[in-house]
Design a protein that fits this description.
With 370 residues, the protein is α/β, with parallel strands linked by helices. Helix 1 crosses helix 13, helix 3 crosses helix 4 and helix 4 packs across helix 5.
């Protein structure tokens, strides 16, 4: 069996998105070490049976000195020569952990999501990030993508040979945790958006759509938001902005939660009007697994979760008008029609996005590399 490292820019991500992967690796007999910045979820990683190492990663920053320090820290850990394979998640880990691991002759498996923006934006920062991706990803032994759009861009720019790449169904959904929970038929149509509160995730369009539809339907509709607020990102919604929307009475802000299934169970429809280049949004997969119809954008990563008109509706990115039209269509479905669409969501997730498919791909890749 192997000594496996799994890295991310937050312990929160590893616990919430890769918990079952860690458990499966341990169950398969591998030793697992999680490397991420310390937060309140680091102890929970230890409770899973993994070892844990704290590392400083400036998640949203662009200071090269901080990034060099992250590379040096990874290199110091990997120079112990006790690790066989490193699994990297999130952008800076894909770059600096890869470079450090290959310097110490360790196999590397990367997970790429949201790569495409680096090949569209021509800012200095994007050009530097693009160069770092090219340098680092050519050294990886296996690269998983969450959608074909990003994989295509990756291959077009010759970052790796096609045989080293593969497609995953996003992060997958835990079908045993996220089970069908029909909404109550009480005359109120409830919507929920789960994401980091970023304008790039379409938060502004969602709020404006809520304002329009609340004016039209009043208390017969409800719009909820759940996720991290005032994060370190230039697109972040501030606490003051959120409070002003809540005070206006157009949205409810639910904070953050480790039991998102309790909030998903209450609603009739999951919404994500993102124009950010997503992998495949976890919130949409989990809501679909719980039998909820979905309204999201015809955008990279998002469109994969919806068969338009079957289990939800696709709207145009960056268009409040299109979002309002899709939400209005959902409101005007009967309760039974929304439940039928939700069952179609569950069937789609079972068929295409079961988390076990993701975990098995990782187990197979590790077996091939060691």
């Amino acid at each position: 069996m192997a000594n496996i490292v799994i890295t991310s820019n937050t312990s929160w991500y590893l616990y919430n998105f890769r918990k079952n992967t860690i458990l499966a690796l341990i169950q398969a007999g591998h030793a697992v070490t999680a490397i991420s910045p310390k937060d309140e979820y680091s102890e929970k990683l230890l409770s899973l049976g993994a070892n844990y190492i704290d590392i400083n990663i400036d998640q949203g920053g662009t200071n090269p000195v901080n990034d060099i320090k992250s590379f040096i820290a990874f290199n110091k850990i990997y120079s112990s020569n006790q690790y066989d394979v490193v699994l990297n998640f999130t952008p800076k880990n894909n770059i600096y952990s890869t470079l450090a691991a290959k310097r110490n002759n360790i196999k590397v498996i990367n997970n790429i999501a949201g790569l495409g923006i680096l090949f569209i934006n021509e800012s200095i920062i994007s050009k530097i990030a693009r160069a770092l991706y090219k340098i680092s990803q050519r050294r990886a032994d296996k690269i998983f993508f969450q959608n074909e759009d990003d994989r295509y861009l990756f291959l077009t720019h010759k970052l790796a040979s096609a045989e080293l790449t593969d497609r995953l169904p996003g992060s997958g959904a835990d079908l045993s945790r996220f089970t069908i929970q029909p909404a109550t038929n009480d005359g109120v149509v409830r919507f929920l958006l789960i994401a980091r509160m970023l304008y790039d995730k379409g938060i502004g369009h969602y709020v404006e759509a809520a304002r329009i539809l609340k004016a039209k339907y009043g208390e017969a509709v409800e719009f909820n938001l759940l996720g991290f607020l005032a994060v370190n990102n230039p697109s972040a919604v501030t606490e003051e902005e959120m409070q002003s929307w809540v005070n206006e009475g157009i949205v409810n802000y639910l904070g953050v939660s480790d039991t998102v299934e309790l909030e998903i169970a209450k609603v009739d429809c999951m919404v994500l009007p993102s124009f950010y280049r997503e992998g495949v949004p976890k919130s949409l997969l989990e809501a679909g697994a719980m039998g909820k119809p979905i309204v999201t954008t015809d955008n990279v990563g998002c469109r994969e979760t919806v068969d338009d008109g079957i289990n939800g509706f696709l709207c145009e990115p960056k268009s409040t008008t299109s979002l309002v039209e899709s939400l209005d269509k959902m409101i005007n479905q009967t309760h039974e029609q929304r439940l039928t669409m939700g069952l179609a969501s569950r069937h789609k997730i079972e068929k295409e996005f079961d988390e076990k498919l993701v975990i098995n791909k990782y187990l197979d890749a590790i077996s091939q590399l060691i």
